[in-house]
Amino acid sequence: MTERRDELIRLLQTYASESGRLAAEFSARHGLHTTDLYALIAVLNADGRGEPLTAGRLGAHLGLSSGATTALVDRMEKHGYVHRVRDTRDRRRVVLTYGDGAARIGRAFFGPLGADMDVLLEGFAGEDLAVVERFLTGVAAMVERRRLDVAQEGGTEIAISRPSA
Asked: What's this model's pTM, rounded to 2 decimal places?
């Protein structure tokens, strides 16, 4: 069981690394910072769930200060990726909705991935996909819990020296 666990961890590390590299490459080719791409994904996902994000919730999701969040949202709004609008349920709140620019970026990023996923999924039976879905749901929850634990721990256990500028 230990060997299988180690292989699954290695595969997940490879996936995470490749996913990050894809995001960085895609962002660079479209003149975005990866944080901008992650922000766009968060806004698109929240809107898709019918739960638009406030700038504060976006900043918390991305781990940004309020000043950095304001600069991010200003930049994204300037390029037509997001719009600040009054919440229809609470006019005191301002929420972020995605604009045409975000929809274009979303299609450019996720369209090819969706097509590739369709081809990949053809090789799996329904029961297999249910197992994969259960596994990935569990992995995502496990990683989120670990991320929150690490954020609460504070400090560093291992000091990594950085090259001087």
From this structure: 0.75
